[in-house]
Amino acid sequence: MRYAILSTVSSDRMNYQLAADSAGQPRLAQMAVIFVADDGTPASPVTYTVKPDGWCMTNEATIASGVTDAMLEDGIPVAGVCGAYVSMLNNGYVVVAYGSPHHLKLMRGECRRLGIADHYATTQSIDVCRALLDVCRIPNVGRKGFKLPKFEEACAHFKVECPPVRDAATNARLTLGLFRALVDLGRLPAPSLPSGD
Per-residue pLDDT tens for 18-52? Predict the structure, then answer.
């Protein structure tokens, strides 16, 4: 099985109650992918930066990612990034991401705005965050069971340094490490198909 470790940076916070391409939803600023071959060998990260077409980064998004409007001016049109994304899906890669529903929603929003097929219903993915629920076992204060670990908490569980400011490439590299930890533990779940809009 071939995997694509995916991470994105968005221009703002996502509203999960709205459709991916609704007015006001954030835009794709960066996409980073690390392809992992059948034998488990990862390729070098590939990072795409999107040139804005009328939108800009919020201060909050820039603080979290380090991605600025000035950096985006050297990017490429979003159509080129979505073309690479759809090509990845067409080539049968399983998308692996930390919080995969977020990244998949952001990408399908951009594909829909362009009027191209996003292959959403057939996109196989693994959510590393959810897979680590029973590995990190962080108490859900005031409730039963465990809570989904934040990215920083998951990295801390495996004693991996997690910088406070992370662009898409940094998150992809860290996600690759968490993915490998799940493989080593024998806890990598089978890919699943998405649900929701």
Answer: 999 999 999 999 999 999 998 889 999 999 999 99
Alpha carbon distances (Å) from 181 to 37, 95, 155, 158, 191: 17, 17, 10, 8, 17
pLDDT digits (tens, 9 = 90+) for 65-101: 999 999 999 999 999 999 999 999 999 999 999 999 9
What's the confidence (pLDDT) of residue 196? 61
Q: Which CATH number fits domain 3-185: 3.10.20.440, 3.40.50.9100, 3.40.309.10, 3.30.420.10?
A: 3.30.420.10
User: What is the model's pTM?
Assistant: 0.94
